[in-house]
Amino acid sequence: MEYMTHSAEETERLGAALAERLLPGDVIAFLGDLGAGKTAFTRGLARGLGICDAVTSPTYTIVNEYPQGRLALFHFDMYRLRDAEDLFDLGWEDYLDRGGVCAVEWSEHVAEALDDPITVTIAKDPTAENCRHITITGGRKHADLSL
Fold first, then answer.
1. Taking a C-beta distance cutoff of 8 angstroms, is the pair 118, 29 a contact?
2. Which of 46, 85, 107, 118 is the one with CA 20 to 30 A from 40?
3. Beta bridge mates, 28
4. Residue 31 · residue 121 · CB < 8 Å
5. Tens digit of pLDDT per residue, the chain (147 long)?
6. Helix, strand or coil, per DSSP, at residue 88
7. Could you count the other beta carbons within 10 Å of the beta carbon of residue 18?
8. Nearest 5 degrees, angle CA 140-CA 24-CA 111?
9. What residues contact 108, with CB distance under 8 A and at least 6 apart?
């Protein structure tokens, strides 16, 4: 499905709508340039899962954990990883076994380790400053998400 958002708040609402349909063990694989809105979408995922904590980018920590929602949220940033082997060294399988949702920024760095992810591609609109083109594909359970 394809969507267009016109603000960070709309991007967050789309993330919250997706969160309502997520199942334990779902993986969200983000694709998008720096500043595209991956963390804004993840803030929406957190809100939709009932997580009240402030969601920040895990750029330097590699993973931020938010365990207190309907499902736990594990927010990964794979930018600094060389390959999927580094991901497994971090305990990737343990995160999957915990029954939460894994949101993976820079997922293309570890694509071979992601089994049937929901892929969220976010692209800036070059003609409008705050507009984002968002495409959501894949996963085990996906339905139309209305804003």
1. yes
2. 85
3. 103, 118
4. yes
5. 899 999 999 999 999 999 999 999 999 999 988 888 899 999 999 999 999 999 988 877 889 999 999 999 999 988 777 667 777 777 888 888 898 999 999 888 888 888 889 999 999 988 888 899 999 998 765 554 443
6. helix
7. 25
8. 60
9. 31
Contact yes or no for 15/146 (Cβ under 8 A) = no
- How many Å apart are CA 23 and CA 49, to the nearest integer? 11
For 56, other C-beta atoms within 10 Å of its C-beta total 12
Q: Where are the beta strands (DSSP E) in the chain?
A: 2-5, 27-31, 63-66, 73-77, 101-105, 118-124, 132-138
Length of the chain: 147
What kind and span of H or E run contains 41? helix 38-48
Q: Which domains does the chain have, with CATH numbers?
A: 2-138 (3.40.50.300)
CA distance 6 to 22: 24
Secondary structure of residue 15 in the 3-state scheme: helix
Dihedral (Cα; 54, 60, 102, 17), 10-degree rounding: 40
User: Going by DSSP bridges, is the β-strand pair 27-31/2-5 parallel, antiparallel, or unpaired?
Assistant: unpaired
